[in-house]
Amino acid sequence: MRGSAILVLLLTCNVAAIEIHVPVDYGTIQAAIVAASDGDSIVVSDGVYLENLNLLGKAVSLSSVNGLTATTIEGGSSGPTIICNSGEGLNSIVEGFTITGGLQVISAEPGGGLWCFNSSPTIRNNLFVENEAGDGGGAYLHGSNAEIVGNEFLANIASRGGGIYCNTGAPLIANNTFCLNVAEHGGAIRHDSPVEAVITRNTFYGNTADNNGGALDLQGLPVVTHNEFVGNSAFRGGAVRAFSGSGMLIASNIFHDNTAEVGGAIEVVTDVLLFNNTIYANSAVDGGGIHLSSECTIRNCILWGNTAVNGSQISITSHQPIIDHCNIETPIAGTGNLSEPPLFVSPTTGDFHLQPDSPCINTGSPFDVSPLWDGEDWDGENRVSCVMIDMGADEYPACPGAVLVRGDCDGSGTIDVGDPLHLLGVLFQDLDPQCFAACDANDSGVVDIADPIGLLLFIFSTAPAPPPPFPACGSIPPGGSLHCLTPTCP
């Protein structure tokens, strides 16, 4: 008897996960969820399924055979299309569906396409389209650390958060597309959580808010990085309004062609860190690029081509922000600020990479702020590819070209004994020359002991001269590993 009980226990503990097929094994998706156990996979064949689903807290993978274009879950305008309210974790996965027809009464119930309460599922590679709710037309996240990755949110409607509403919790919202969503506050996303949600590498296009935040309406401490905002509109904050939460980070984003009455790209009314953003061709009545009424910090940003009746690039109505190491078309006093054409590759077609001779290369803050996010620029390349961080969302991937005399390490304009002595100081006393490329006397690609030795032999014997550019000034092409912040000749 005892042996039989042990055998039953062992068999129970080693039940393998199974794959359940809909409609072959079960006629409905919900019936398959009810029958499934943790670890099982539910695979749904092509078709339109008129259902309102509840994952019932199960760690199951729910996916389609042929993806979202072939498989639709239609909520029938009778509540949320999908519910997660039983403590689902990241192993509860929904992938590869068109999720539509979720309806909650506007200004009343939350969650049209997805209602997620104190649960943290993985939602990826789905299309949320034409769902409607009071909060979170596409998805409502409360107390959730869900991962919302690789989805498209299209034409969803809500009072707050047309695409997604976040209320407490720290979800990851990454690599999604938000297009033509509508709300009163936060056309794409409304974030009310005091915790650090991460909103990264998304595209926000053509979203609208009647009041605040055409794409994002933010309070709390979200981290907003590596996104592109284009063609969004609102009364305040055409793309983003940041209205509450000290220390919010908005970094390495591109904003272009957004519109508002106040703050064409961004309206800031709280203590925000705006680092390495490119803000171009946005428009407003007040503050074409940014409208400020707080003591925020703007660093390493490019503001160019924005238009407004008042404050084409930046409008400041109260407090005094810190603005440094920025390239701003309308000059603003501040450490390291410029007012020179940024030389984007093709801004009219949305290419905001920097040309090799852009003044924004190597002219950002001497303190690399990119570790505050992930150390990468907007399109995933390493920050600080030369010496100092660049301005804007893009990091030029190599040191720029320069005009110099090879071997003129001390910048005197001639080759003499002062150059090898200066080179020795660079190597052994931590001197920082303004032109490492000139100190590379033998053009080896590195500055090492061979350079001062070669110069001394040239000066005092018949050793070969340094390679070009020498003895006259000449240019070196961009792309090398050695910088030249200050040319050694005109």
Key phrases:
Type 1 dockerin domain; Pectate Lyase C-like; 2 domains; mainly beta
Mind describing the biggest β-sheet?
13 strands, parallel
Note the overall shape: elongated
Category from helices, strands and their pairing = mainly beta
CATH superfamily annotation of the largest domain: Single-stranded right-handed beta-helix, Pectin lyase-like
CATH topology description of the largest domain: Pectate Lyase C-like
Give the beta-strand count. 48
Distance between the terminal alpha carbons, to the nearest Å? 96 Å
CATH architecture group name of the largest domain: 3 Solenoid
Instruction: Summarize model confidence as the mean pLDDT.
Output: 91
Please specify the SSE layout and strand pairing:
Layout: H1 2-13, E1 19-22, H2 29-35, E2 41-44, E3 47-50, E4 53-54, E5 61-64, E6 71-74, E7 82-84, E8 93-95, E9 98-100, E10 114-117, E11 122-124, E12 127-129, E13 132-135, E14 139-142, E15 147-149, E16 152-154, E17 157-160, E18 164-167, E19 172-174, E20 177-179, E21 182-185, E22 189-191, E23 198-200, E24 203-205, E25 208-212, E26 216-219, E27 223-225, E28 228-230, E29 233-236, E30 240-244, E31 248-251, E32 254-256, E33 259-262, E34 266-268, E35 272-275, E36 278-280, E37 283-286, E38 290-292, E39 297-299, E40 302-304, E41 307-310, E42 314-316, E43 322-324, E44 327-328, E45 344-346, E46 351-354, E47 402-404, H3 418-428, H4 436-439, H5 450-460, E48 474-476
Parallel strand pairs: 1-2, 2-5, 3-6, 4-7, 5-8, 6-9, 7-10, 8-11, 9-12, 10-14, 11-15, 12-16, 13-17, 14-18, 15-19, 16-20, 17-21, 18-22, 19-23, 20-24, 21-25, 22-26, 23-27, 24-28, 25-29, 26-30, 27-31, 28-32, 29-33, 30-34, 31-35, 32-36, 33-37, 34-38, 35-39, 36-40, 37-41, 38-42, 39-43, 40-44
Antiparallel strand pairs: 45-46, 47-48
Helix pairs in contact: 3-5
